[in-house]
Design a protein that fits this description.
heterodimer, A: about 800 residues, mainly alpha, Na+/H+ antiporter like fold, 30 helices, globular, B: about 220 residues, Recoverin, domain 1, 2 domains, two-stranded antiparallel sheet, two-stranded antiparallel ribbon, 11 helices, lipoprotein (chain B), membrane (chain B), EF_Hand_1_Ca_BS (chain B), cell membrane (chain B), protein kinase inhibitor (chain B)
Chain lengths: ~800, ~220
């Protein structure tokens, strides 16, 4: 195998990027296609033979009559399962890489389509090689391994506020819409199969219940497909949450309908009692799933309260509890998807308040990584199983299915919107309805459910599978490819890229209270009232239990404010250490412009601020000290073993205090933007440290803040203070405890850095200028996962406070 | 619905319906609530509002109540405050919270936006001078955080300062060090909350059914 790649890759280097990409793609497909048959073969003879073909070093020991000691032997059986799995995962990841190297392709064709095509190719290759295609999309693998990461990722980062605001609409679409789809498609299919009495085809043997079951399977909108396609088109939040929420919540309906019809079709008769039981079952499945998820979510939140001494395993708790929630609900045949969503959504606000920043980044990256790989694998496997078959193509059935799916979806959406709009404040327009209808993609869940069907109960199983695959292909290819130009054509409102500003946050909170107040004055308990009640309950009881320490009392606005500060600090460092102002603050307005003029008007604004009365110093010191402790609680202990006590801990706060006070007097003279820093001399030692520290952890971007650099974690550099005026400075406002906070953040990470890179601080700064800058620049080109890099820059979703 | 329609000939209500855009049933319900709050008097005073128990735990209670007595919200270009309000004034203030109807032109939608934002602006601008100064904004943030106890004034100041700086950066852009940003004018306020979609957010559902018997 190594030899093969070796012979191909050098040829690609001389050409341009797209060509290289195409070549790489072809090579990869060929490679995987040829290796996999070797793996697929289960009998030791075949594998032995095949492997001995490709390896030059023959296992000569086996050919000699006298059994010599085998210097080199082959044992494929020993490792073949993990080997194949790794190979598939590698294929998936390399495919993803490859697609993004070909820029034009990824903007025309959505990734999901490309992946299915790759799957088709690989499947075809395997078949050509004469091997048996591995049963890759078997139900166990799909439902237990491939699906949970995607759903957890979706649930953990679910934007709670729009979800809750539109919950009624989403539920209507999910429950009523799916029911309508299922019965409409199932019923009409049955009618169609019965309408040709003249030439009895084998369709006649199809009974009502299998048709209804088929309808139930095919009618559910698939979250994986929706995610894959919608992520690339960036439509506005409302539509996104409507379609996506529907795809998540209809799982309960699908599960119930599936089990119901499966049960009935083996029995043969349906009674009213069964229908009633079905309804009860639906409620149990849905609510039970949510309950199980919520319980595990609360457990996870509670556990995270105590992890302050063992930060390294914090992400593990999140993952394991969520997976347990999924498995537990699958145990009882409850809705696993709803359990996962509930678990992620419930645990998130509390866990995020408890865990360290690095754990938070870890969780984010792991979730995105797993869900990305899962999604890729699912689409590839879809392609592979398509080639595998067995297929039973029946023109009537398949075509009618496709048409009915479309028609049912359109009618369902229009009808439901008509009813829903009576209850909505912000009505859904026709454009919205069109996008919702068009976004109803089917995907791998439908296929897996079909795969689960037993042959003896459902003789038409292959026909069903063929039809399902056709519908999936149709929706993913046709609808997936055309939705982007349609969105452009119809001028549907896109996602607002604007960052959440502090003003918007203030006004969001203000508006919430205002509307609650008006509702109270009007005298009816609207949903603002209940939301407010829930918030108060949350603050009073729940937060105290689940969030460690002082952060339980931190109000939303302040938490948001801190987050924003961190973000800006990170941004600052990423943008090259303040050499240019971050684009978010392109103005030169500074705090001095804002402070009101104090009488007498003869004094200018600057001079007023120079006076720090003695009494204030004490105050400042107290504030700084308390803030130091608070931040430390949140962000400390990155090291794996907390055996080593922090050597500088005691002297640290004193150093900080002294430095702060000395700096304060200096800063006041200078022009300083709040949170933005004027250009500093790029060879100042503090700038180096900023770049160094930011460059060190290229993947996990610590909240390095430029302005805090003066108090860098190297106490030995205490004496070094640049004498120049345009030194990175902190904001002038004396009363704000925030800037020391952010400073401390940097210090904490610098601390972490110091402990892992011993001697980092000892090196002379001048030598590190280039690598620091280079790394800073490198950080700019981030690889995007389906166009979204969940680095601190692109995490709008995170800013959602829990039920604000 | 039948019970409400038995209200015979309330021509003022029809006038009000046209003026404020509420439906007759909604006006009927609100009128009942008005009478309930004012203990069957003709006008409402501030202490009537203070009696509403649910309102007690609202951090911006005072501003909300003030908004009802602020003449700038009566759409008559008045100024100053009054001590008591009639049902018509009550209704006019409430009408700021009606959702925009589906079939509205861009212009109408824009004017609805302006109206709602004007209401918010008036709530912040307590001294009626047409600008929200730093002090007033600080007060707003303090009120919002007033339920959180410990952190109080200092944090509120910091947050308000940051917010003001943001407004100044967005609206004015470039300022010399000795220039001074007076305060947020209405135009700046509009620009600031441009992406806020206030016309879809600042709404409450006015019921056609009478539920005042259920609540206090």
């Amino acid at each position: 195998m190594p030899s093969r790649t070796g012979s191909h890759s050098p040829t690609g280097f001389g050409r341009g990027l797209p060509e290289r990409g195409l070549l790489l793609l072809a090579v990869l497909v060929l490679l995987e296609g040829s290796v996999l048959p070797l793996g697929a073969a289960s009998s030791p003879d075949i594998s032995h033979q095949a492997n001995s073909d490709s390896h030059k070093k023959a296992d000569g020991g086996h050919n000699i009559t006298k059994k010599a000691f085998p210097v080199l032997s082959l044992d494929y059986q020993h490792i073949h399962i993990p080997f194949e799995i790794s190979l598939w995962v590698l294929l998936a990841s390399l495919m993803k890489l490859g697609f993004h190297m070909i820029p034009r392709l990824s903007s025309i064709v959505p990734e999901s389509c490309l992946l299915i095509v790759v799957g088709l190719l690989v499947g075809g290759l395997i078949k050509l090689a004469g091997e048996k295609v591995p049963p890759v999309l078997n139900t166990q693998l799909f439902f237990l391994i491939l699906l949970p990461p995607i759903i957890l990722d979706a649930g953990y980062f679910l934007p709670i506020r729009p979800f809750m605001e539109n919950l009624g609409t989403i539920l209507m679409f999910a429950v009523v819409g799916t029911l309508w789809n299922a019965f409409f498609i199932g019923g009409l299919l049955y009618a169609v199969t019965q309408i040709q009495p003249a030439n009895p085809s084998d369709l006649h043997s199809l009974e009502l219940l299998p048709c209804l079951l088929f309808g139930a399977i095919i009618s559910a909108v698939d979250p994986v497909a929706v995610l894959a396609v919608f992520e690339e088109i960036h439509i506005n939040e409302l539509l996104h949450i409507l379609v996506f929420g529907e795809s998540l919540l209809n799982d309960a309906v699908t599960v119930v309908l599936y089990h119901l019809f499966e049960e009935f079709s083996s029995e043969g008769t349906v009674t009213v009692m069964d229908g009633f039981l079905g309804l009860i079952s639906f409620l149990v499945v849905a609510l039970g799933g949510v309950l199980v998820g919520a319980i595990y979510g609360i457990l996870a939140a509670f556990t995270s309260r105590f992890t302050s001494h063992m930060r390294v395993i914090e992400p593990l708790f999140v993952f394991v509890y969520s997976y347990m929630a999924y498995l537990s609900s699958e145990l009882f045949h409850l809705s696993g998807i709803m359990a996962l969503i509930a678990c992620g959504a419930v645990m998130r606000p509390y866990v995020e308040a408890n865990i360290s920043h690095k754990s938070h980044t870890t969780i984010k990256y792991f979730l995105k990584m797993w869900s990305s790989v899962s999604e890729t694998l699912i689409f590839i496997f879809l392609g592979v199983v398509t080639v595998d078959g067995p297929h039973s193509w029946n023109w009537t059935f398949v075509v009618v299915t496709v048409i009915l799916c479309l028609v049912a979806r359109v009618i369902g959406v229009i009808g439901l919107t008509f009813v829903i709009n009576k209850f909505r404040i912000v009505k859904l327009t026709t454009k919205d309805q069109f996008i919702i209808a068009y976004g109803g993609l089917r995907g791998a869940i439908a296929f897996s459910l079909g795969f689960l069907l037993e042959k003896n109960h459902f003789p038409k199983r292959e026909m069903f599978l063929t039809a399902i695959i056709t519908v999936i292909f149709f929706t993913v290819f046709v609808q997936g490819m055309t939705i982007k130009p349609l969105v452009e054509l119809l001028a549907v409102k896109k996602k607002q890229e604007a960052k959440r500003s502090i003003n918007e946050e203030i006004h969001t909170q203000f508006l919430d209270h205002l509307l609650t107040g008006i509702e109270d004055i009007c005298g009816h308990y609207g949903h603002h009232h209940w939301k407010d009640k829930l918030n108060r309950f949350n603050k009073k009881y729940v937060k105290k239990c689940l969030i460690a320490g002082e952060r339980s009392k931190e109000p939303q606005l302040i938490a948001f404010y801190h987050k924003m500060e961190m973000k800006q600090a990170i941004e600052l460092v990423e943008s090259g250490g303040g050499a240019k102002l971050p684009s978010s603050m392109p103005s030169t307005v500074s705090m001095q412009n804002i402070q009101p003029k104090k009488p007498p008007p003869a004094k200018s604004a600057d001079r007023t601020l120079l006076q720090i009365p003695k009494g204030r110093e004490e105050e400042i010191r107290k504030i700084l000290r308390s803030n130091l402790q608070r931040t430390r609680q949140r962000l400390h202990s990155y090291n794996r073993h907390t055996l080593v006590a922090d050597p500088y801990e005691d002297g640290f706060s004193d150093i900080i205090k002294k430095r702060r006070l000395m700096e304060l007097e200096k800063k006041i003279k200078e022009m300083s933007n709040y949170l933005t820093v004027p250009a500093a001399a790029s060879d100042s030692p503090t700038m180096h440290r900023a770049r160094l520290s930011s460059g060190r952890d290229t993947d996990f971007k610590p909240a390095q803040q430029q302005k805090g650099n003066k108090s860098c974690p190297d106490p030995q550099s205490y004496g070094v203070k640049p004498a120049t005026d345009n030194v990175p400075t902190i904001q002038v406002d004396l009363a704000s405890p925030q800037s020391p906070d952010s400073v401390n953040v940097m210090d904490e990470f610098g601390r972490g850095d110091q402990e892992e890179d011993q001697g980092l601080m000892m090196k002379p700064p001048s030598g590190h200028k280039k690598p620091g800058e280079a790394e800073g620049a490198r950080e700019q080109q981030k690889l995007t996962r389906c166009l979204s890099d969940p680095g601190p820059g692109g995490d709008e979703d995170e800013d959602e406070p829990f039920l604000p | 619905m039948g019970a409400l329609q038995s209200l015979p000939g309330q021509p003022e209500h029809i006038d009000l319906a046209e003026k404020t855009g509420f439906s007759l049933e909604q006006i009927g319900v609100l009128h009942k609530r008005f009478r309930q709050l004012s203990h069957n008097e003709e006008t409402l005073r501030r202490d009537h509002f203070n009696e509403i128990p649910d309102l007690a735990c609202n951090p911006i209670r005072a501003q909300i109540i003030e908004a009802f007595f602020d003449k700038r919200n009566y759409r008559q270009n008045g100024e100053g405050t009054v001590e008591e309000i009639s049902f018509e004034d009550f209704l006019v203030v409430m009408s700021h919270f009606r959702p925009p109807s589906v079939h509205m032109t861009e212009e109408q939608r824009e004017s609805v936006r302006r109206e709602k934002l004007r209401f918010l602006f008036n709530m912040h601008d307590t001294d009626n001078d047409g600008t929200i100064t730093l002090e007033e904004y600080r007060h707003v943030v303090e009120e919002l955080l007033s339920r959180s106890g410990a952190l109080g004034k200092e944090t509120a100041k910091g947050i308000a300062d940051a917010a003001m700086l943001e407004v100044a950066s967005i609206s004015v852009g470039h300022m010399e060090p000795d220039e001074f940003y007076e305060g947020i004018t209405f135009e700046h306020f509009l620009k600031l909350l441009n992406g806020f979609e206030i016309e879809s957010r600042m709404n409450i559902r006015f019921l056609n059914m009478d539920t005042t018997t259920l609540c206090k």
